[in-house]
Amino acid sequence: MNARQPAPVSSEPLAERRLRALVEQGLPLVPRPWEALAKQCGMAEAEVMACMRRWQSEGLVKRLGLVVRHRALGITANAMVVWDVPDAEVADLGRRLADEPVVTLCYRRPRRLPDWPYNLFCMIHGTRRERVLSALDEIVERQALQAIPHRVLFSLKAYRQHGGRYTAEERP
What we know:
Largest sheet: 4 strands, antiparallel
Shape: elongated
Radius of gyration: 22 Å
CATH topology of the largest domain: Alpha-Beta Plaits
Number of domains: 2
Strand content: 5-15%
Strand order of the largest sheet: 2-3-1-4
């Protein structure tokens, strides 16, 4: 006989499971997002706020972030600049590049020799390639990076972006 095991019963209240699934989808773009979520979950706004604080203290929610759909805003010239920086200098240069206003993220990665010598990556977004390249030229000049080998890799395709996922359960 092939009996199915019953699904495990969650001790988490249904309203909190709904809230967790809604938070995964992102906060609604309204003046009072917690109130809007509360209405959808059958909770009071204060309960939602208390639940979020509890989840933070328990480590379930570590931070709330923002996923910017930059292409929808007309920012379509997106360049990853890869640098071949001497290992002794990469931490310092990484901090300096991260402080540049047009650099949206900067991180170190291991080299993959012999084909990929680059160990420092940074993103520059813009509305046109010429502006991105001009901004990069200014950074190279300001930071005296003329001797540091680098390549500019413009994005060709945008893939779906989303925040963290915490549930595999039903979606509201």
